[in-house]
Each structure stands twice: as structure tokens, then as C-alpha cells.
């Protein structure tokens, strides 16, 4: 069992996006959907596809630092501020598994790097397309949509 979607959003995703200067419920929904499709909200934090909630591959992580963050030192410093002081230097990819806010910031930057237009939270197919573009180029849109319905839709239902 993974992390409850409501709590993941409230305590990790929203504060991380606010820290990065973004107040956008649609971005929050997209990151929830990506976490749902990549790891079932944390049920599996490390597998052959990558590390952490968002299953980020080591090569993608390194490329983001080398090709994107290296050109924006203020943002790089801000993101580095989320990482553990010593652990990051020894094993930067492990931060993607053990540090939820750092992993969320990296996941967001992988989306931002694509210059994708963030769809409305009701546009699950639109979010699935961004997921495939930024995280799983060979992924099936249906997999994202199914994960959304199983993991995230209960968050949106009124009791």
C-alpha cells in the first residue's frame, strides 16, 4: 500500500510546488497522477524503471542536472536545498527514493523541461499524454488513466 493521495498532495506535492514558486492545482493533480502511474503512490519505490514515487531513471536525473539545472543556477541551488546535505553527495539518486520533496521537485522539473502545457485536472487524457512525454515514452495512456482511477479518483469523491 502506498501513501494516501490526499496526504501526498497536502504534505509533499503542494508544499514543494509552492517552494518552487508555483501555485497550481492542475500541476498538483498531474504529479499525483504520475506518482500513481509510476509507483501506485509509493507501493514500489525502487524497480528497474527508476527510483522513488516517480520512478525516475538515474540517467534522466543526471541529464536534468547537466542539461537543465546547470543553466539555471538559482533554481539548481533551490532544488539542491531540498536534498540531504551529505547523502546527496554520496548517492544523489537515492534522494529520489528517500526524499519525497526532492523527488517531487525533480519530477516537476522533468515536466517543466518539456515545456508542456499543463491540462486541467479533469483532463485525465491530457495528463496521461504529458506523463508519457516526460516519463514513459513507451507507456500506454490507458495505464495512466487506470492508475488515476484507482489511486487518485477517490480523493476527488465527496463522501
Total discrete domains: 1
Helix content: 55-70%
Using the alpha-carbon principal axes, give the shape.
globular
Class derived from helix and strand content: mainly alpha
Please mark out the parts with pLDDT under 50 across 5 or more consecutive residues, or reply none. none
**What Rg do the Cα atoms give?**
15 Å
Structural commentary:
The chain is mainly α. The protein has one domain. The protein is 62% helix and 3% strand. It has nine helices and two strands, in the order H-H-E-E-H-H-H-H-H-H-H. It has helices at residues 5-19, 25-39, 58-68, 73-80, 87-90, 95-98, 100-113, 124-134, 141-156; strands at residues 46-47, 50-51. The chain has a two-stranded antiparallel sheet. Helix 1 (5-19) packs across helix 7 (100-113). It starts with a helix and ends with a helix. The mean pLDDT is 91.
Summed up:
The chain has 159 residues and is mainly α.
Topology:
Layout: H1 5-19, H2 25-39, E1 46-47, E2 50-51, H3 58-68, H4 73-80, H5 87-90, H6 95-98, H7 100-113, H8 124-134, H9 141-156
Antiparallel strand pairs: 1-2
Helix pairs in contact: 1-2, 1-7, 2-9, 3-7, 8-9
Descriptive key words:
159 residues, globular, mainly alpha, two-stranded antiparallel sheet
Amino acid at each position: 500500500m502506498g501513501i494516501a493521495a490526499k496526504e501526498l498532495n497536502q504534505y509533499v506535492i503542494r508544499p514543494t510546488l509552492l517552494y518552487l514558486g508555483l501555485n497550481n492545482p492542475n500541476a498538483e493533480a498531474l504529479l499525483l497522477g504520475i506518482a500513481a502511474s509510476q509507483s501506485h503512490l509509493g507501493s514500489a519505490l525502487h524497480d528497474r524503471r527508476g527510483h522513488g514515487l516517480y520512478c525516475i531513471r538515474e540517467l534522466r536525473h543526471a541529464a536534468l542536472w547537466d542539461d537543465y539545472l546547470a543553466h539555471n543556477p538559482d533554481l539548481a541551488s533551490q532544488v539542491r536545498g531540498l536534498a540531504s546535505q551529505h547523502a546527496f553527495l554520496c548517492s544523489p539518486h537515492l534522494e529520489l527514493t528517500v526524499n519525497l520533496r526532492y523527488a517531487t521537485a525533480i519530477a516537476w522539473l522533468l515536466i517543466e523541461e518539456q515545456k508542456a502545457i499543463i491540462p486541467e485536472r479533469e483532463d485525465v487524457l491530457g495528463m496521461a499524454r504529458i506523463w508519457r512525454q516526460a516519463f514513459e515514452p513507451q507507456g500506454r495512456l490507458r495505464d495512466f488513466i487506470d492508475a488515476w482511477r484507482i489511486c487518485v479518483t477517490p480523493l476527488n469523491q465527496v463522501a
